[in-house]
Amino acid sequence: MNIFRLTGDLSHLAAIIILLLKIWKSRSCAGISGKSQILFAMVFTTRYLDLLTAYISLYNTSMKIIYIGCSYATVYLIYAKFKATYDGNHDTFRVEFLVVPVGGLSFLVNHDFSPLEILWTFSIYLEAVAILPQLFMISKTGEAETITTHYLFFLGLYRALYLINWVWRFYFEGFFDMIAIVAGVVQTILYCDFFYLYVTKVLKGKKLSLPA
Amino acid sequence: CHRTKVKDEL
Predict the structure, then answer these.
(1) Crossing angle (nearest 10°) for helices A115-129 and A34-47
(2) Nearest residue on chain A to B9, judged by CA atoms?
(3) What is the predicted ipTM?
(4) Membrane spanning segments where (chain A) (predicted)?
(5) Do B9 and A57 touch (CB under 8 A)?
(6) Residues 6+ positions from A69 with CB-CB distance below 8 Å
(7) Which residues of chain A approach chain B closer than 8 Å at the C-beta?
(8) Residue A106's Cα: distance from chain center in Å?
(9) Residues of B with Cβ-Cβ distance to A57 under 8 angstroms
């Protein structure tokens, strides 16, 4: 465990908690893509099935359980508890355009043709693109609440830190996982445009709004 | 392709 990996995990955790608290405190999930949150719940579920087959560490097990628990709680808040505030009219990204190709790709390009391994690969590929419905929603409405942009920032920061972690692990441990690295690079690139807006607007105290 | 047997990352 290096510092980039640890801060990456904590940044991921911060993103998840920020989103949960935002919805809980404001009693509203306006501006949040429920579709992205369902995709993230699918990502965690398919990736952490190894909770049942392998024990790595107390840290590893607890973080996995927290991630899964929080992501299901978020989906519950959006689709049940605060359903009346859910902005479904703007959450119109067609998720089958992500899930079907990603499912096909995980069958074709994987480390090992076994059920758990294919599901793990599926989760890696799906995570890379799971934020697209949220970004699509923001581009459609042309704006995002500042707290939502903090959520996106920490989510993107997590992946960027993981990239540095992989460079570190390659040099010091000779470790690399091509599937995770390629998907991680794609995922980080998707956040670049957002990072630019975050730094030039949100950090200067302005609301994130896109030109009409 | 090189990979770890145990997936220790989240």
Answers:
(1) 150
(2) A60
(3) 0.82
(4) 65-82, 119-139, 151-172, 178-199
(5) no
(6) none
(7) 5, 9, 12, 50, 54, 56-57, 60, 63-64, 67, 111, 120, 162, 165, 174-178, 180
(8) 18
(9) 8
All residues at 6 or more sequence positions from A130 whose CB lies less than 8 Å from its CB, including other chains = A36, A39, A40, A43, A98
Q: Which helix (H) or strand (E) holds A74?
A: helix A58-76
Question: pLDDT digit string (tens) for A84-106?
Answer: 999 999 999 999 999 999 999 99
Question: What is the token pair recorded at A23?
Answer: 């919805």
Residue A44: both structure tokens together:
């965690």
Residue owning tokens 């097990």: A61
Search chain B and give the residue with CA nearest A173: B4
CA-CA distance, A46 to B10, in Å (whole number)?
A: 12
* Binary contact (B10, A63; C-beta < 8 A): yes
Query: For residue A63, what pLDDT is reported?
Result: 98
Structure tokens at A185: 């690079």
Contact in structure between A181 and A24 (CB atoms under 8 Å): no
